[in-house]
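Bench log, entry 3. Co-assembly request; chain sequences pasted below exactly as received.
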Amino acid sequence: QPVLTQPPSASASLGASVTLTCTLSSGYSNYKVDWYQQRPGKGPRFVMRVGTGGIVGSKGDGIPDRFSVLGSGLNRYLTIKNIQEEDESDYHCGADHGSGSNFVWVFGGGTKLTVL
Amino acid sequence: QITLKESGPTLVKPTQTLTLTCTFSGFSLSTSGVGVGWIRQPPGKALEWLALIYWNDDKRYSPSLKSRLTITKDTSKNQVVLTMTNMDPVDTATYYCAHRLSSSWSIWGQGTLVTVSS
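Structure output for the full assembly:
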């Protein structure tokens, strides 16, 4: 099954842009990844799914246009433009693997985004 | 509007069995393609997927916890129940249930914190 690696922290100034990275382990370059936002003290919220061709399907409810994704090789990126205070959150990536009795869902360690 | 809410004990003793209930609205677990899953998050740590049940009663479990988990559904009550046996302090976490559609966890509950301590 894939391993998803995320930097533990990131920061950006109000109004700036930031790109968060989720890296799949070797051999899983064709996998799609979900991004989830988790504001302090809240449950996660689906942002969008990304593959090597970009977004897969639709964004989650209420996700602003400032959020976009790209996929390249083993990396899946989430870019937030014009960062707002409400974007300060933990961001988790996740992916499913296998089917039937071999199905598993794996999450990365999460990245804590601080808005300066 | 889809909503989910977790309920259950906030404190369990080591070796006890935990039973959590997810009560949902805004969708039916008898609709083709729909699933409900459980994910947990120990304090300050990463999310960990636990179990998933589909509209057709197909079930999936985390391989590392499979022997301790049971997931069931009551479609008439719009509920999904997760039981976890032989609880240990390392199982202390916030437990979330989530609606699954098109391979993503589209809507999550607010979570319920379960502490395992004697």
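The mean pLDDT of chain A is 96. The interface with chain B takes residues 32, 34, 36, 42-46, 49, 57, 60, 92, 94, 96, 101, 103-110 of chain A (CB under 8 Å).
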